[in-house]
Q: What sequence folds into this?
C-alpha cells in the first residue's frame, strides 16, 4: 500500500539504528528523543489537527507516570498491566477535562489557561499527597526481568518506544484519512462552518482530546519504566507541557512526522545547550522559549512547512523555465 | 471558634493583600481589554520586577517605594518594547500565535532569572517591614497599608489618564473598535504597545509594594499571576472595577481560608476557584466579552 | 393542502432590550424558491440564524417537515437535511476547495473515497471544476461563494438556506450563478434565500416574504410584493408612496 510506505521506511530505518550504534549515551539520547516525540504526537492530535492548544499536556503525561508507578509499587500490579492502566488513566483524565471544558465551549486562550490550571492542580496535589510520595517521589525497584518491564539492554527500551511512536504515526495517518480527521480539521479551521455542515464539534473535540491524552500518557508510562523514579515536578511540571507542544510546533503542526522531526530538534538543542553552557537550571527552557518565539516568527508551519515551501518554490521555477523554454 | 477581633483582622489583612493582587490583575485586564490576548508572560514579568526591586535595594540602596519611581517607567519601556518589537510582529495578528509567543516569552524570562540568580529565595530588610499601626483593637502592618493606598492611587491615576488624556482616549477607542480607530488615524500598534507598557508598569509597582514583606525567587511571579488570572476571570476580562473588587474579594477569601484551612491549601483553592469560574461563567461578574 | 417543508411560527428574538425579530411567521413550500427580503437591519440574518440553529428564539416555533426543530443545534439540523451558507463566506482557508467540499460530503458518506467522489461531482456542478485543487483562500469572491454553495450542497440537503449568496458579485457573476440555483430547485431542493439583488429575487423566487424592523409586513408573489405600499415605504421611507405619485394603489 502506497500509503504506508513513508511510515514503514522511517520506522525500519530507525529500528536498524541500535544495530549500528552501540554507545549508551547515544542510545539514551535517541530514547529521550522518541519519548519527547511520543508526547508531542499526542499534543499534535488535539493541537495540530484540532487547533485546540493545550498548555497543560503534562496532566496526561503525569497521570501515565503515576498510575504506572503507583500500581506497581503500592499494589504489586504487574508492570505491563500497569502500563496499560496508565494509558487508560491518562485517557480518562483527558475525557474529564475535555467534557468539562468543551461542553462549556471554552476555546483559544481560555482553553489554554484551563489546561494549564488543571496541570498545576495535579502537580500541587502530587507534591503533597502521600500516595505519590509527596515531596520525595516514587522509586520503582530495580528488577531486570521482562515481566517487570525492565531490560538490561537499552536497545530493547529503544525498540519499545519506537514501537509506541510507530503506533502514534499510524494513528496520525489514520486520522488524516478518516472522516473524523476531516471533521477535526474543519473544527480547527472554522467551527461555525463545521457545525453548519453537520459536525458535532463538542464530540469531535472530546474524541481528539481522549486520543491525544492517551498517546501522551503512554509517553509518561514509558518514562516511569525507563527512569524508575518519578516526582511531581517531572510528572506534571511545565517543562513537560512545553516539550509536548514545542515538538509539533517546530516540526510542523498537523502533520504525521512533524513531532518526530521536532523532537530531534528539541532534544538536540537541549543537549547542545548543556554541552556549551553546562547543566545549569533553566538553561534548556530558555532555549526552548527562544526557539518557540523564533519558530512562530519565521517558520510558523515548522520544519515540514519549510520543506513544503521550498518544494513549491522549486516546482514553480521549473514550470516557469518550461514555459519560457 | 475565632474571636471577632481575629476575624476582622483577617478580613482587613485580606483587603490589604488583595489590593496588591488587584494591581497585578489590573495590568492583566488592561492588556486583555485592549489587545484581547491573555498575557502569559505577566507572571514572569512580575518575577523580573521583584528581582529588579531587590537589586535596586541591594546595589543602589534604593528603598522599594522610591525604586517604584524608577522601575515603573523602566518596565513600561520594557513592556512597550516587548509588544512593539516581539509579540506584535511575530504573531502576524494570529491569536494562536500570540498565545504561543507570550508563553515563549514567559518561559524565557522566568528561566533566565532561574539561570542567572538560581532558585534561592531572597528577602530584603527594611526598617519599617514589621512596623504596625495600632487601630486599638488590632494592629495592621504599615507596608501593607502603604501598598493599599498606593494601589488605589494608581487606579485613580489610570482612570484619569484613560478619561482625560489623548492617549487614554485612543486606548479606549482601540479597545472598543479597532478598525474604526485605525480609520480615524490612530496608530494601533503604538496603542497596543502603550497598553502593554502600562500593564507591565502596574506589575513593576506591585513588585515594589510586595518586596518589603514578601520573598523573591524566579517562580513567585507565576503563583501571583495565577491569582491575578483568577481575579480577572472572576471580575470579568477587561473590566477595571472587576479587577479591583475581585482582587479585594480574593484577598479576603485567601486570608479567611488561611485562617480556617491552613496555608498549603491556599494555592490549590485558588486554582480550583479559577477552574470553576472558567467553567461556569467565563465572562465573570462584570465582564461582557467572552 | 400540502404541509410546507419549513414553517416559522411567530418567532421573536430579544437581545437585552432590543427586539430583533418580532413575531415573524413564514413558510417555505417544498420544491419552491422562497425569498426573504427587507431593508438593512430588518432582522433577516437573525431570523436565519434562528432557523439554522445558531441563535435561540425567545418565542415561537420553527417546524421542519411538521416536527419542531426549535433549539436544535446546527449539526443536528444538517443531519436532518437543512443546510446553510453564510453571508460572510466562511471557507476552511487552509484547505483546498475539494477538501472544503469533502467536509460537507462526509456527512452522508463516512468513507473518504465515496466522499471525495461526491465532492468532485458537486464541485463541478457549481462550476468550480478547474479550481478544486486550489487553496480556498486563493479563490476570488465569486469562487468562494460557489465553494460555500458546494459545501452546503454536498450535505445533500432537502432545504437550503442561502444568506445573500449573490452579495458582492458583479452582474456577470450573478448571471452565472442564478441558473445554478434554479437547477437546484428543479432537482428538488427547497430554497429559502435572503437576497438584496432584486432582479434575482424577481426571476428566481416563486414566493416572497418581506421583513421590516423585525416583523413580516408583506407576503406574496414577487409581483404582488413589489406593488405593495408598505414594502415601498419600508425601503424608501415613510411617505415615499405619496411622493412617487399615483403609481401605487
A:
Amino acid at each position: 500500500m502506497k500509503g504506508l510506505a513513508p511510515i514503514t521506511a522511517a520506522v525500519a530505518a530507525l529500528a536498524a539504528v541500535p544495530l549500528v550504534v552501540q554507545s549508551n549515551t547515544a542510545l539514551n539520547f535517541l530514547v529521550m528523543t522518541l519519548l519527547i516525540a511520543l508526547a508531542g504526537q499526542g499534543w499534535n492530535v488535539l493541537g495540530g489537527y484540532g487547533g485546540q492548544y493545550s498548555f497543560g499536556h503534562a496532566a496526561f503525561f503525569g497521570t501515565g507516570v503515576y498510575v504506572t508507578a503507583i500500581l506497581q509499587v503500592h499494589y504489586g500490579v504487574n508492570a505491563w498491566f500497569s502500563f496499560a492502566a496508565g494509558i487508560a488513566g491518562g485517557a480518562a483524565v483527558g475525557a474529564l477535562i475535555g467534557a468539562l471544558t468543551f461542553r462549556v465551549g471554552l476555546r483559544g486562550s481560555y482553553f489554554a489557561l484551563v489546561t494549564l490550571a488543571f496541570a498545576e492542580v495535579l502537580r500541587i496535589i502530587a507534591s503533597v499527597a502521600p500516595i505519590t510520595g509527596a515531596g520525595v517521589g516514587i522509586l520503582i525497584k530495580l528488577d531486570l526481568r521482562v515481566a517487570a518491564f525492565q531490560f538490561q539492554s537499552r536497545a530493547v527500551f529503544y525498540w519499545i518506544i519506537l514501537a509506541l511512536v510507530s503506533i502514534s504515526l499510524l494513528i496520525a495517518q489514520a486520522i488524516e484519512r478518516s472522516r473524523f480527521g476531516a471533521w477535526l480539521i474543519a473544527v480547527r479551521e472554522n467551527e461555525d462552518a463545521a457545525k453548519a455542515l453537520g459536525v458535532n464539534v463538542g464530540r469531535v473535540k472530546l474524541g481528539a482530546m481522549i486520543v491525544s491524552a492517551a498517546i501522551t500518557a503512554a509517553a509518561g508510562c514509558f518514562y516511569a519504566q525507563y527512569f524508575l523514579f518519578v516526582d511531581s515536578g517531572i510528572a506534571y511540571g511545565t517543562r513537560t507541557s512545553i516539550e509536548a507542544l514545542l515538538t509539533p510546533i517546530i516540526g510542523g503542526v498537523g502533520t504525521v512526522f512533524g513531532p518526530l522531526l521536532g523532537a530531534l530538534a528539541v532534544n538536540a538543542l537541549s543537549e547542545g545547550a548543556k554541552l556549551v553552557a553546562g547543566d545549569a537550571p533553566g538553561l534548556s527552557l530558555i532555549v526552548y522559549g527562544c526557539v518557540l518565539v523564533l519558530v512562530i516568527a519565521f517558520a510558523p508551519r515548522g520544519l515540514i512547512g519549510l520543506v513544503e515551501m521550498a518544494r513549491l518554490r522549486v516546482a514553480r521555477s521549473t514550470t516557469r523555465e518550461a514555459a519560457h523554454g | 471558634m475565632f474571636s471577632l477581633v481575629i476575624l476582622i483582622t483577617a478580613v482587613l489583612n485580606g483587603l490589604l493583600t488583595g489590593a496588591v493582587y488587584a494591581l497585578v490583575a489590573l495590568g492583566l485586564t488592561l492588556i486583555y481589554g485592549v489587545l484581547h490576548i491573555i498575557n502569559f508572560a505577566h507572571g514572569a514579568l512580575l518575577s523580573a520586577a521583584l528581582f529588579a526591586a531587590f537589586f535596586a535595594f541591594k546595589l543602589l540602596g534604593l528603598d522599594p517605594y522610591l525604586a517604584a519611581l524608577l522601575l515603573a517607567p523602566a518596565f513600561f519601556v520594557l513592556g512597550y518594547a516587548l509588544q512593539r518589537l516581539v509579540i506584535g510582529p511575530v504573531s502576524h495578528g494570529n491569536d494562536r500565535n500570540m498565545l504561543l509567543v507570550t508563553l515563549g516569552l514567559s518561559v524565557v524570562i522566568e528561566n533566565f532569572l532561574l539561570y542567572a540568580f538560581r532558585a534561592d529565595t531572597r528577602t530584603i530588610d527594611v526598617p519599617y517591614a514589621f512596623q504596625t499601626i495600632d487601630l486599638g483593637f488590632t494592629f495592621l502592618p504599615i507596608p501593607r497599608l502603604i501598598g493599599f493606598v498606593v494601589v488605589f492611587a494608581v487606579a485613580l491615576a489610570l482612570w484619569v489618564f484613560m478619561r482625560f488624556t489623548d492617549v487614554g482616549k485612543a486606548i479606549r477607542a482601540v479597545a472598543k473598535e479597532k478598525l474604526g480607530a485605525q480609520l480615524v488615524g490612530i496608530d494601533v500598534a503604538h496603542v497596543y504597545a502603550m497598553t502593554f507598557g502600562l500593564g507591565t508598569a502596574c506589575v513593576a509597582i506591585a513588585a515594589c509594594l510586595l518586596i518589603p514583606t514578601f520573598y523573591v525567587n524566579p517562580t513567585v511571579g507565576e503563583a501571583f499571576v495565577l491569582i491575578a488570572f483568577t481575579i480577572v476571570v472572576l471580575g470579568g476580562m477587561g473590566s477595571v472595577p472587576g479587577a479591583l473588587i475581585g482582587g479585594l474579594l480574593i484577598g479576603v477569601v485567601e486570608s479567611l481560608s488561611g485562617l480556617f484551612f491552613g496555608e498549603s491549601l491556599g494555592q490549590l483553592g485558588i486554582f480550583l476557584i479559577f477552574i470553576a469560574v472558567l467553567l461556569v461563567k467565563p465572562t465573570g461578574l462584570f465582564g461582557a466579552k467572552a | 393542502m400540502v404541509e410546507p417543508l419549513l414553517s416559522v411560527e411567530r418567532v421573536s428574538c430579544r437581545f437585552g432590550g432590543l427586539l430583533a425579530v418580532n413575531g415573524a411567521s413564514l413558510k417555505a413550500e417544498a420544491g419552491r424558491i422562497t425569498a426573504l427580503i427587507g431593508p438593512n437591519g430588518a432582522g433577516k440574518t437573525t431570523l436565519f440564524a434562528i432557523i439554522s440553529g445558531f441563535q435561540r428564539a425567545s418565542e415561537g416555533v420553527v417546524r421542519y417537515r411538521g416536527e419542531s426543530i426549535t433549539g436544535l443545534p446546527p449539526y443536528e439540523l444538517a443531519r436532518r437535511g437543512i443546510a446553510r451558507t453564510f453571508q460572510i463566506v466562511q471557507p476552511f482557508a487552509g484547505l483546498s476547495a475539494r477538501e472544503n467540499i469533502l467536509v460537507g460530503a462526509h456527512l452522508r458518506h463516512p468513507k473518504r473515497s465515496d466522499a471525495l467522489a461526491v465532492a468532485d461531482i458537486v464541485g463541478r456542478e457549481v462550476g468550480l471544476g478547474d479550481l478544486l485543487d486550489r487553496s480556498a483562500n486563493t479563490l476570488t469572491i465569486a469562487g468562494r461563494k460557489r465553494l460555500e454553495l458546494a459545501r452546503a450542497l454536498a450535505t445533500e440537503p432537502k432545504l437550503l438556506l442561502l444568506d445573500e449568496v449573490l452579495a458582492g458579485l458583479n452582474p456577470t457573476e450573478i448571471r452565472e450563478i442564478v441558473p445554478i440555483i434554479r437547477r437546484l430547485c428543479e432537482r428538488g431542493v427547497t430554497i429559502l434565500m435572503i437576497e438584496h439583488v432584486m432582479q434575482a429575487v424577481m426571476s428566481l423566487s416563486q414566493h416572497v416574504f418581506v421583513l421590516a424592523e423585525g416583523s413580516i409586513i408583506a407576503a406574496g408573489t414577487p409581483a404582488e410584493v413589489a406593488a405593495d405600499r408598505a414594502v415601498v415605504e419600508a425601503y424608501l421611507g415613510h411617505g415615499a408612496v405619496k411622493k412617487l405619485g399615483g403609481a401605487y394603489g
